[in-house]
Automatic annotation (TrEMBL), chains A, B:
Keywords: Chloroplast, Hydrolase, Lipid degradation, Lipid metabolism, Plastid, Transit peptide. This is Alpha/beta-Hydrolases superfamily protein. It comes from Actinidia rufa. It is found in: Plastid, Chloroplast. PANTHER family: PHOSPHOLIPASE A1-IBETA2, CHLOROPLASTIC, PHOSPHOLIPASE A1-IGAMMA2, CHLOROPLASTIC. It holds the Pfam family Lipase_3.
Length: 512, 512
């Protein structure tokens, strides 16, 4: 079957399984896919080119038991048959994709290269969940299951990511967010105070060539599944400068719990004796020093509560100015966030904009988290009322550009998915993959497997026969030793912090 | 530390971790263990020898967080230090162990060789659970996960079992036990009518030498976890002869549902076009023919509802007389059952005894299943009342010799385990391993791993840090294909029935 390249909708023929169509038209190299030769178009062309998105499909239906296995075949067929023009290379267009022009003209219709880059960073945020040990019966509960140096991306099936993890991030669990942290029941645990909360990675030489710059990524973990942490938020805005972040304006405020998570530490803990903030600032400055003569970018990603940390840390980097080089050039900093809550007040939003931090927020309109905190006073109020409410501690505002998805548009998903489904990161990546703009039909662009949606939830329609919550370790990590006993194997010692921490903290004016 | 070889209880010293002690005194080769040279004692000696069971330990305690890892070390230490006399070889004693003398003198105190044999057969029953695919999202739901020929015992970590599976058993799910069968949600499923329900295996040459005979094992699967099937029982006793089982006495009756399960078939189904009964009788007679000049035994095992099938099929074999050889010698038939319900009435019990079928029932006194069906009228009533109730359809009676265990005696287990825990087969094997007789302390005899208890339930005390329900497949069996898609791999075609079935059925007088 040929692909329609016009905007005319084809009649829906479920029996021909037109539901799944790969659109390689503007596809960028995705993790795990080989890069293909790409024609050279400049970024003006990128912003103004006509979008000829195939309109094959799609309409939710429950009556046709199409299977995901058929999709596989169709995608392959399609690959062989179509010869659409390729996307311009990232080397030409990455600044635009990275938000230099606030994604104007790239979101509706949806730019294919931006979409695939969002998927790529989204998968780096997803990696934080997939690698996190949240089993309270594990003696490593609260840590990362894989070692940073040897096997982080490999064990996650992302060996071709083109990034090396340069540092693991830890936060102290001694703060007022009991439903965020996971604690082991073991008496002798790897740490009683710390939780693994994300990582910093940097693109390798080969990937940097494709990306057009050396990319430093910070990925923050969110909450594992449940949404109770929203209820834990104190709904209390605190001046960001109260925690030694050098903001000149004391009316710039953020949610107190997020600020605690970002700045708190525990002196006698090997892992969280430095705050997440200190870990991030020292690591980013170290990496910038490592690549003195290269073009660099800083890309921060996170889902859910991790999205709040992404915004806070992005803001912090531009506020402290550690992204500004000796010659006053600023390394662009961008946040790609997924289903994130509001973080601060309107002044915080204005401050972020003034400092040039770019924020693209991917949300699902049925997800309650982006509506938290600040159900009553938020940026959607009439401006006059908002102005009046500005001094109140509960006047929250979102920051940046929103990309609103709607899970009811995907024919793969149950329409009655619960709140946890609507908030799921894999579901967002699936929705993104099928998104081509407001009012456009849902067409999967990358061939990314919809089965991934059910890794940690029960959201795919039952007739696809993908087991709900299917991602699980064999025997919960128990292995049988040579003498027949079932035990939890010991893991390699977790990295603590580099020796240069204290020196770097002093350099950054953060020394004690 | 030395092991006490007297009956004097040692004071309880939890800090010295005396809790776990390997008793190799009468140990028989267990699956996965090497056989050791054994002294030659005749079976009179076996029955009358003095039992010098070590009394190290044990008293339930919650206060001492001893770990299972320590157990491992202790067991090894113990192995090196102790030089107790070994058990007589099975070649001398297997008839006794197999119930020839109704286990008189072997149960209290508990004979070590019988215990280890019970564990071995119990593990063969447990294999039915571990190999069963009960995920309704699997297209093979209701089947055995592993192939019969290549990898059944290997995949279960029982490569050294010394048995070859000669046949898989299927039953039709079209009977009145809805909570026993598992049905896939796939539209195109391996079978809409059949469920895998057990297997027949036969000892190989090497193992047969150790066992003293060629052993034919029939292992029946029970219900996976829940106990609803008890409620499904119609509590209705039907004459066993009504289903063409050649019982001369029409007052011999068994529970109608069990009889259905054993005798029903579905003509147009490749897997259950023969009843479980027909499969068993033809297979056993085929195997007997295969080894004409050898000493043979038939050992039947099962847990829960599988225990009912074990008893029924054992009875059937001796009633039809397929175990009787040309020279009128009868191959001994024995049932080792675990947490089985009552199966028939007093007449059934008497008939079983008359026919020489030996039955040893291992139960946990806190398990409700052995009290079903027949809560009101059963064998524990005064004999006169029982006699009066005999004609009533609900006057059930247990058969054979009972070995009653008590989960409150194990210091490893939570005392408040629920009904499903109390019924769990792995829990029974653990209790058996620690059982030395009525009033004797609980001492693990074989070094069998207590962690196995939590494979499919939440019964071990939390401080052992063994995850509850830990036995699970990686990613619920989903695997990532070369092109990055997650799918359920196809499995090799399941064995149907051998070509000789019809001929054999005619030979047995069962042909249509």
């Amino acid at each position: 079957m040929a692909i329609s390249s016009s905007n005319t909708a084809l009649p829906f023929k479920p029996h021909q399984q037109q539901l799944f169509r790969s659109n390689n038209q503007f596809s960028a190299p995705l993790i795990g896919q080989k890069t293909k030769p790409i024609t050279s178009l400049d970024r003006q062309k990128l912003a103004t080119r006509s979008h000829t998105i195939p309109r094959v499909l799609s309409k939710p239906t429950d009556s046709v038991p199409f299977s995901l296995a058929d999709f596989q075949t169709e995608a392959k067929d399609n690959e062989q048959k179509t010869h659409e023009p390729k996307s311009p290379p990232l080397t030409d267009t990455w600044r635009e994709i990275h938000g230099e022009s606030d994604w104007v003209g790239l979101l509706d219709p949806m730019d294919a290269l931006l979409r695939s880059e969002l998927l790529r960073y989204g998968e780096m945020a997803q990696a934080c969940y997939d690698a996190f040990d949240f089993d309270p019966f594990s003696k490593y509960c609260g840590s990362c299951k894989y070692t940073r140096r040897q096997d982080f991306f490999t064990r996650l099936g992302m060996a071709d990511s083109g990034y090396d993890v340069s540092r693991y991030l830890y936060a102290t669990s001694n703060i007022n967010l009991p439903n965020f942290f996971k604690k082991s029941r073991w008496p002798k645990v790897w740490s009683t105070n710390a939780n693994w909360i994300g990582y910093v990675a940097v693109s390798n030489d080969e990937r940097s060539k494709v990306l057009g710059r050396r990319d430093i990524v910070i990925a923050w973990r969110g909450t594992v599944t449940r949404l109770e942490w929203i209820a834990d938020l104190m709904d209390y805005l605190r001046p960001i400068s109260s925690d030694k972040i050098p903001c000149p304006d004391p009316t710039v405020k953020v949610e107190s719990g997020f600020l605690d998570l970002y700045t708190d530490k525990k002196e006698n803990c090997n892992f969280c004796k430095y705050s997440a903030r200190e870990q991030i600032l020292t690591e980013v400055s170290r990496l910038i020093e490592m690549y003195p003569n290269e073009e660099l970018s800083i890309t921060i990603t996170g889902h859910s509560l991790g999205s709040a940390l992404a915004l806070l840390s992005g803001y912090d980097i531009v506020e402290t100015g550690i992204n500004v080089l000796g010659d006053s050039r600023a390394i662009p900093v961008c946040v790609f966030s997924f289903s994130g809550p509001r973080v601060g007040n309107v002044r915080f939003k204005e401050r972020v904009e003034r400092l040039g931090l770019k924020v693209l927020r991917v949300v699902n309109v049925h997800d309650i988290v982006p509506r938290s905190p600040g159900f009553i006073f938020n940026e959607s109020m009439p401006q006059m009322l908002m102005k009046a409410a500005e001094g109140l501690p509960w006047s929250y505002s979102h920051v940046g550009v929103e990309l609103a998805l709607d899970h009811k548009n995907s024919p793969f998903l149950k329409s009655d998915g619960d709140l946890v489904c609507a908030h799921n990161l894999e579901a967002h990546l699936h929705l993104l993959d099928g998104y081509h703009g407001k009012g456009h039909r849902f067409v999967l662009a990358s061939g990314r497997d919809p089965a991934l949606v059910n890794k940690g939830c029960d959201f795919l329609k039952d007739h696809y026969m993908v087991p709900p919550h299917w991602r699980q370790d064999e025997n919960k990590g128990m292995v049988r030793s040579a003498d027949g006993r079932w035990t939890q194997p010991d893991r390699p010692k977790l990295d603590e912090h580099p020796n240069c921490m204290l020196r770097r903290l002093r350099q950054l004016g953060l020394g004690q």
